[in-house]
Amino acid sequence: MVVLNKIYTKTGDGGETALGNGARVPKYALRVEAYGTVDETNATVGLARLHAQGDMAEALARIQNDLFDLGADLCRPDMEKDHDAGYTPLRMTETQVERLESEIDAINAGLQPLRSFILPGGSALAAQLHLCRTVSRRAERLTVELSRNESINPAALRYLNRLSDWFFVAGRVANENGATDILWVPGANR
């Protein structure tokens, strides 16, 4: 269990932060950027939850919890040394990826196929879900870049890739199952 009784530590005053394995790195390090953007994604999901109800609110709550798992995974480098940690580090699992895939398939099954790109917007919830989508895509890009330089859990990257798709189809559901999606009209204002 986590106990936070002192919020500031002053250990980051020099521009460094600690990773999950205790290593100190600059706050601008790519790994910190990646898990920081996952945290930003989580904050946007919190805003979306303000507009969600029922199954959608429950799904968003699950995703928020997963995003904390993902941040914990990304903040601990050296997966190959997990057995030396003295505890089992938290890592994303294929089960979490598969759950997103199942939900995407179930959600998308009730939607009409798109014949145009859609503009982010419509209902308040749909607009927030599109913001979640774009921020999660940025987190994915940073994590892909990180994976080119350091080892990461492949399930973490797959989860991020599926997550933006989940937000996209959920945004369509929030727009009356796509009926009130705002369609892109190419060249409309030329």
Structure description:
This protein is mainly α. Helices cover 55% and strands 5% of the residues. The chain has a single domain, classed as Up-down Bundle (Hypothetical Protein Ta1238, Chain: A), CATH 1.20.1200.10. The chain contains five helices and four strands; from the N terminus they run ββαααβααβ. The strands form two sheets. A two-stranded antiparallel sheet has the order 1-2. The chain has a two-stranded antiparallel ribbon with strand order 3-4. Strand 1 (16-18) and strand 2 (24-26) form a beta hairpin. Helix 1 (30-49) runs antiparallel to helix 2 (54-74), helix 3 packs parallel to helix 5 and helix 4 (124-149) runs antiparallel to helix 5 (154-174). The termini are far apart. 31% of the residues are buried.
Keywords:
mainly alpha, Hypothetical Protein Ta1238, Chain: A, two-stranded antiparallel ribbon
